Amino acid sequence: MTVSDPGMGLVIGMGLGTVFVGLICIIVICYIMGAVIKLFEKHVPAEEPKPSAQEAPAEPEPIENKGELIAAISAVIAEELGESVEAIRIKSIRKVS
Question: Are the CB atoms for 85 and 75 separated by under 8 Å?
């Protein structure tokens, strides 16, 4: 090692220091950009849609081939769990959305 060669610790310290300074700069830039966006953002209160008297909640449509649907769902669940179809018991089915 000569006088002009930097030590290993100095090189590692400078590298880590550069990375952390860069990350801190990115965080500061994100905060500044967020503040600028909030300044230019229009604050318009969202109007809630009023339910009309004509629109009643729709009744769920009956399932035509319920046996086929249950068989298909059972097969998929059994395949995912690695079980046989006989080990799967579906107690109820309801539409989520």
Answer: yes
DSSP 3: T
Torsion sign over Cα 79, 80, 84, 86: negative
Q: Are 75 and 90 in contact (CB under 8 A)?
A: no
Chain segment 69-80, per-residue pLDDT in tens: 888 888 999 999
Cα 23 to Cα 5, 18, 66, 80, distances in angstroms: 28, 9, 57, 42
- Phi, psi at 46, each rounded to 5°: -75, 130
| 93 and 70 Cβ atoms separated by less than 8 Å | yes
Model pTM score:
0.40
Query: How far is 79 from 26, CA to CA, in rounded Å?
Result: 46
